[in-house]
Amino acid sequence: MGNIAIRKDDDIMKIRNRMQHKFKSVKAFRAKKFTGKLKLKEDPLSYQKRIRKEWDEFTD
What we know:
mainly alpha
């Protein structure tokens, strides 16, 4: 998406224009489409610990 540098002495209207220009191509995210329940076959806490352990292995 890119970065917008904001300096202390920048005009607020120029900043807003740059931000609007950057975000025009972004589509709205419809979170309602992804709501619901998730049924797990294992304990949620043990699943979370296992997944985090896998993440830690890949970051090292």
